[in-house]
Each structure stands twice: as structure tokens, then as C-alpha cells.
Write a structure and sequence with these properties.
Helix content is 27%, strand content 43%. The protein is an alpha+beta fold. The protein has a single domain (2-166), classed as Beta Barrel (Lipocalin). A hairpin with a 7-residue loop joins strand 3 (70-80) and strand 4 (88-101). It comes from Vibrio algicola. This is Transmembrane regulatory protein ToxS.
């Protein structure tokens, strides 16, 4: 009788431990730190009514989440407008802290650097500052993470905006 109780207790413990692992942030953290992630976002700028300069932005980002809770992100912002002869490209380097809580990633950006070498002709300094500020605000949002597969994650903001992180 003791053997049966011990076996049932051991099996229950293994099943419960497996369930906790598969439904907790441990597995998600392992997937998140396992590779470098990319995303591509195209935003139409109707909400930026103040500037009336930028019609569309294409943001290509590479991000690496490190096991120590820090992250590094490099983003290329291509700004398009009928008023520009060619797109304006901004390169922004970002780093800070990240943590997982109940399948949500909470990002705390600490350092933003504009590493652009191109001339931003066509944009005034206040317009450029406004665009960078919108980018910073977007970075600070908490996002729910769902694993699509080993090479793709779905990030959903509280406002139901979605981004797919992918890795090759």
C-alpha cells in the first residue's frame, strides 16, 4: 500500500511540475533569451496630425533579451512623405531592463541613442523630437506574449495592437 501511495505521489508531483513549467514564465523566458528577435512594423501616420510631414513609417528592429534581465535593441526608422525626395532614415539604439510577469513582458527603457548618420532634411528639430518621443513611448508599453512556434512570438499591447517577433 505504501508503494502505491508513494508512486501516486511521485507521479502527481511530476505531472504538477510539468504543468507548472509549461504554463509558467520559465519556458517563455527560455524561448525569449534563446535567440535574437526581429520585427517589422509599418505605421500610417494619421494619428500624428500635429506634424503633417510624415505619411508613413517603416520600423525594422532587432532585439536581444539577455538572461540577466537587460535587453539591447537596434531600430531603423524609415520615414516617408510626399514632401521628401527620398525616405529619411533614423537609427536608434535602445537598452534597458525587461521582466516577465504572467506572460506579459514589461520593458523599462533606460538609454536611447540616435545613431543616425544621414541628414534629416525635411524635418525640423521639434518634429524630429516629437517622432523620437512617440518611439520612446511605444517602447515602454507592456505586452502580452504568446508563443506561435519556436521562431515566432506574438506581442499584443493593452490597446490590442500586435507585433510579431520572428527569428531565423
Amino acid at each position: 500500500m505504501k508503494k502505491i501511495i508513494t508512486t501516486v505521489a511521485l507521479a502527481s508531483s511530476i505531472i504538477f511540475s510539468g504543468w507548472v513549467y509549461w504554463h509558467s514564465d520559465f519556458k517563455l523566458k527560455k524561448v525569449l533569451i534563446s535567440r535574437e528577435w526581429q520585427s517589422t512594423l509599418v505605421a500610417h501616420m494619421s494619428e500624428w496630425n500635429k506634424s503633417h510631414i510624415v505619411d508613413k513609417a517603416k520600423i525594422i528592429s532587432n532585439v536581444k533579451y539577455l538572461p540577466n534581465g537587460t535587453y539591447l535593441k537596434i531600430s531603423s526608422l524609415n520615414l516617408y512623405s510626399k514632401k521628401f525626395k527620398q525616405p529619411i532614415e533614423l537609427n536608434i539604439s535602445e537598452s534597458g531592463q525587461w521582466e516577465l510577469s504572467d506572460h506579459y513582458i514589461i520593458i523599462t527603457p533606460e538609454v536611447f541613442k540616435d545613431t543616425s548618420t544621414a541628414i534629416t532634411a525635411g524635418l525640423s528639430k521639434p518634429q524630429l523630437t516629437h517622432i523620437k518621443q512617440l518611439f520612446k513611448v511605444s517602447s515602454q508599453q507592456s505586452r502580452k506574449i504568446d508563443v506561435i512556434n519556436d521562431n515566432a512570438l506574438l506581442l499584443t499591447t493593452l490597446e490590442h495592437g500586435s507585433t510579431i517577433l520572428y527569428s531565423q
